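Researcher: Here's a chain I'd like modeled. Treat it as a single chain, no partners, no ligands.
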Amino acid sequence: MTSGASVAGQTTSLPAANQRTVWALAWPIILSNITVPMLGLVDTAILGHLDDVQPLAAVAIGAQIFTLLLWSFGFLRMGTTSVTAHAVGQKGIDNSLPLLQQAIWLAIPVSIFCIIAAQILTPLLLPLFGDDPTLHALTADYLTTRFWGIPVTLLQYCLIGWFIGRGETRIPMLMLITANLLNAGLDYYFVWHLHMGATGVALGTVLADVGALTIALIAALQRDLTLRLPLPDRAILKRMIVINRDLFIRTLTLLIVFASFAALGAAQSTEVLAANAVLISLLLLISNALDGFAHAAESLVGRFLGAAQPQQMRRAIQLTGINSLIAAFILVGLFVLAGDHLFRLLTDNEDMLPRLQEMHLWLWLLPLSGVASYWLDGVMVGAQATASMRNSMLAAAALVFFPIALLPGQLAAWSANGEVSANTLLWLAFHLFLLARAAFLIPAIRRIVQTTQK
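Model: Modeled as a single isolated chain. Structure tokens:
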């Protein structure tokens, strides 16, 4: 079934949900998303081969704080994808431009708020990551530079979400690959030739983001976006705000978990913080690779929902889930084959390598622990079931992660090597948190499927 709903005399025609359709949407996102954590791995490798481990730790802390401030507003990406995909299915691709324009209107006050919040919150958050004044100074320098790129990052969210919602995933691919290649080259030049350390990494990231935004704006202008935006549309903005409110709470909760994870690692030692940062960089590689099918689910589920094609929507949910699971097993196999060689590519610091070698199992399990939650998030965004996303995230954090992660002292008392045991407990909490996110979404996915069968 490829014909959709009739709206105002116009029939919206959509391709059927099959492997070809899923992969046409997923492969550009997979390819581009892999470059995102690859950039983090390049940063880790560049800084990890310095004699001093503190620049790497500073970037780990600074990236967590920047992410806490900015990714809380990742709803600009997901919310824009959701409403755009629904509009494309309901009214056709030519009627999606107003959604991008209204998303940009939302990004303007959010940018102002983030810049102000960054200045206020940074001095309050740094003490959570240990009491080393030198490390705090390096982190503050990194953040001062990154904050210049706040408006650029938020506008990228809007444009990427719009293109994914339209099913034009090759544009985000071009944006992200270009940006990350620029970032890798600039980071190497700033750190190794200009000796700018953590600040050089931040500057390279900002300049690369400007390059990605330029590509996105050129592509949007070719699709009739005008630099002179129409006045805000209250009806569209109200609908976007309702969706984005739930996504904001969901994303903020996730980022609090990540920040707490980093802070609890820093409380053990700088070496533990840095070793955990390496695995978190690899987690970003995993999540971004698997998100290709999640983004495909967002676009397909949203468009089939808007076009009133429930059978195709269920088929899209099934296919994206199967492909996500296959991809997760492939990632596990690659990590097992890589073994210690992967860690040695990222750092030759003799204090960190033994810690990383003890953490193989946690790395190997990450794709399997996270795959269901990443895929289901995509389905929920497409179905505009954002309240379920919010509730599952809150429950997983409050009932699973924090009760386990905040007990390292007790486990340390049972072990002769308390520091390692504390970090083991921290990683156990994180894996169970990923599994719980998916488990708490199962009732919601059942409701969606049952509703479309009526």
